[in-house]
Amino acid sequence: MSSVALARADRVLAQGTVERAATSETLLALVDAVLVEAGAAPAELDAVCVLRGPGSFTGLRIGLATALGLQQALGLRAAAMPTLRVLAEAAAADRVVAAVDALRGEWFVQAFRRRTALEPEGPPELLRPEGLRVPEGAVLVGFDVGRLAAAAGLDAVRVVVPEALAPVAARLAARWPEWDPALLCAPLYLRPAPATAPGLRRAVDPT
């Protein structure tokens, strides 16, 4: 699912989602719909935020390229936020393990703990379910993480599945410390792109 939100300070004014933004045109249409809902014009925007991964190769490229186009066309400030950090914020808990499905039976996982703010307890990892460890009292957050918890045998872990991440990122932007448009060209894949042999097509995740 792709989502877009418009916020002033940390208050979300409008938001929208589509099941799959297969092209930049689809995502831009959603941006336009959110602006219309909020009664705002592109020229009124001050900044643009986007998730930089980990995630699917195709989805990350579309999101980052769309944000880069808006940033360059409108002269906006820009922030590219790690997806796991935004997921952790969506859990609204003091100790969180955020997870993104990496396909092939693996997950991108990172643990966070709230001190004055949510801070990572280590770098993101690529794990199979049997390698997942969720500290006592921590929340497991992500899309379809109920399946991950079941595969890991962690039936007692509290699971949070966010509705959409754009509103979370929009609120987080009010206190985001790193505004750097160069990061729009630096996706966090955490896994190298699949190799392409001569004469064969590269398999990509279309989400």
Catalogue the unreliable spans: 196-207
Q: Mean pLDDT, nearest integer?
A: 91
Strand content: 25-35%
Describe the main β-sheet briefly: 6 strands, mixed
Shape designation = globular
Output the radius of gyration: 17 Å
**What is the rounded distance between the termini?**
8 Å
Short key terms for the protein model shown above:
single chain; 207 residues; alpha/beta; six-stranded mixed β-sheet; two-stranded antiparallel sheet; 5 helices; 10 strands; globular
Describe the structure.
This protein is an alpha/beta fold and 207 residues long. 27% of the residues lie in helices and 27% in strands. Strands 5, 6, 7, 8, 9 and 10 form a 6-stranded mixed beta sheet that branches. The chain starts with a strand and ends in a 35-residue tail after the last helix. The C terminus is likely disordered.
Quick structural summary:
Helix content is 27%, strand content 27%. The protein is of the alpha/beta class and 207 residues long. Residues 196-207 have low confidence and may be disordered.
Topology:
Blueprint: E1 2-8, E2 11-18, H1 24-38, E3 47-51, H2 57-74, E4 77-81, H3 83-90, E5 95-103, E6 106-114, E7 118-120, E8 125-127, E9 139-141, H4 145-151, E10 158-160, H5 166-172
Parallel strand pairs: 3-4, 5-9, 9-10
Antiparallel strand pairs: 1-2, 5-6, 6-7, 6-8
